[in-house]
Amino acid sequence: MLAALGLVSRVTIAVLLPTSRPEEEPAAYGTSPDTRRFATVLVAGVLSATWAFTGYTYIVEFLGDVGGFSPNSVSALFVVFGVACLAGVSVTGALLHRFPQSALTTAVAAQAVAMLGLYSAGTDPVAAVVFLALMGGALGPVFMTTQDAMLHCAPGRTDIALAANSGAYNAGIAAGAVLGGQILPRTDVRDTFVAGGLLTVGACAVLLGGRLRRPGRQSTT
User: Fold this and answer.
1) DSSP state of 22
2) How would residue 95 be classed by pLDDT, with cut points 50, 70 and 90?
3) Rounded distance between C-alpha atoms, residue 23 and residue 14, angstroms
4) Would you state the torsion angle of the CA atoms of residues 106, 112, 113, 119, taken in this order, to the nearest 10 degrees?
5) Distance CA 111, CA 128 (A)
6) Using CA of residue 84, residue 89, residue 95, residue 100, what is the dihedral sign?
7) Taking the mean position of all CA atoms in its chain, how far away is CA 205?
8) Is 157 helix (H, G, I), strand (E, B) or coil?
9) Interior angle at CA 73, CA 72 and CA 75, nearest 5
10) CA-based angle 63:67:73, to the nearest 5?
């Protein structure tokens, strides 16, 4: 079914999209090319993905063993997580171009708070739901804001920059799962969240450091 829907989408796009050469479009190149800012956003994005999925990969075990939720409740909590993610993306999309300097940093900081909150208060069901929703509300906007930044700071073509960011983010997801898998047998599932949360603070430091090196200039981080 998914393959059939993908085929319909592909044919629709092929029919409706204009046939102009990509390099002739205004969005083919970054609006404010900046190699340093590009590298900062790329590194912060991959670090954020790695640290998020250090814990999130094992969220089912966390919610069951630490939060005490039943399997049916965990399924419902995934709906909460998804709705929070959609809400976070919607709010970020509405505010992104009004507050370009703060969007990515805020999303990464919220991710850190959510993961550390799950570690410290995840045994309380209400707190677990709150911090899980906060994590959902941060996870989508992190990738969204890095992609937006690529359109501005790409030192070359934006399609290459977007592909690099997407590939790096997915590599971070895989690396996070591996890291969490190394932590889990040695301690317990809670420690995957404290490790991910503390390391996410490092991603915030990368973003803030990048902004401090660029005084007085607008940044999409």
Assistant:
1) G
2) confident
3) 18
4) 170
5) 14
6) positive
7) 16
8) strand
9) 65
10) 60
Encoding tokens for residue 49? 């993905």
Backbone phi and psi for residue 18, each to the nearest 5 degrees, phi listed first: -65, 160
Angstrom distance (rounded) from CA 159 to CA 166? 11
Give me the chain's average pLDDT, please. Answer: 89
Beta strands in the chain (DSSP E): none
Paired tokens of 178: 């591996």
Question: Looking up tokens 């509405």, which residue turns up?
Answer: 94
**Cβ neighbours of 207 (radius 10 Å):** 26
- Is residue 105 within a helix (H) or strand (E), and if so which, with residue range? helix 103-121
Of 47, 88, 96, 55, which Cα lies nearest the Cα of 205?
47
- d(CA 128, CA 63) in angstroms, rounded, equals 8
- 220 close to 41: Cβ distance less than 8 angstroms: yes
Taking the C-alpha atoms of residue 29 and residue 109, their distance in angstroms, rounded to an integer, is 29
SS3 186: coil
46, two tokens: 């991959």
Which pLDDT band holds residue 24 (cuts at 50, 70, 90)? low
